[in-house]
Design a protein that fits this description.
224 residues; Rossmann fold; 8 strands
Length: 224
């Protein structure tokens, strides 16, 4: 059985009442995987905005494997120390990683964030020397539309991320860089300029699905 671990920030954990892109990915894999699979990770909850804590189980569709390693306000900086143990405990085979916006927004510059990507990959491989990883660049968001220095950091980081993924890719533990969804629009694909609505959830899931299909012949073209 293939074991997929979604890893991410607020766009991945989602908040109470949402489907999340994790659910969209699960539905896609149900249709295309061709074999048994599941989602794994040490956490299951959604973020509850009223409680300001990740305590909600109120998924819009709860009937799917909800496990993940995602947190509201967490980035590469926070996940790098956790990923090895999380993989060992869950026996994850494939990581689907969407991180970076929080790092650049609050904690680290582009170069420092890229170093944390390296630490994350190293930590992941201590958990499973053959783990596969698909990494999504930082996607369009409202702050990058209005804050030119921040937008420059996002562009710089995404360039460094591409170089880092290429540098760390190896046959026994391959890395893929997913493409930013080409039609992603913060006005129609998010509910607040950053967090995905249903349209955005499908587009994020499609970015991961298409990367795996094109790079590894895993699954098929995205089916939402």
């Amino acid at each position: 059985m293939l074991r997929f671990m979604p890893v991410g920030d607020s766009m991945t954990i989602g908040s109470a009442g949402e489907h999340t892109w994790r659910y969209r990915m699960w539905r896609h894999l149900c249709a295309t995987s061709g074999g048994p699979f599941t989602l794994v990770g040490p956490r299951e909850t959604l973020y509850d905005k009223a409680a300001d804590a990740p305590t909600s189980y109120a998924y819009a569709e709860p009937d799917f494997p909800r496990s993940h390693l995602a947190g509201w306000g967490e980035g590469w900086l926070h996940m790098a120390p956790l990923i090895g143990d999380a993989i060992r405990a869950s026996r994850a085979d494939v990581l689907l990683v969407s991180l970076g916006l929080i790092d650049l927004g609050f904690y680290t510059n582009a170069e420092q964030t890229a170093e944390n990507v390296r630490a994350f990959v190293t930590g992941a491989r201590t958990g499973n020397a053959r783990v596969r990883m698909v990494v999504l660049p930082v996607i369009p968001n409202v702050r990058a539309m209005s804050d030119a220095p921040f937008a420059a950091q996002v562009t710089s980081f995404n360039e460094l991320l591409a170089k880092t993924v290429a540098d760390l890719d190896e046959p026994r533990s391959p890395l893929l860089l997913a493409s930013t969804p080409p039609s992603y629009d913060i006005h129609t694909d998010t509910y607040d300029g950053t967090h995905p609505n249903a349209n955005g959830e499908h587009k994020i899931a499609a970015a991961f699905a298409d990367a795996m299909y094109q790079g590894w012949d895993l699954g098929g073209p995205y089916e939402g």
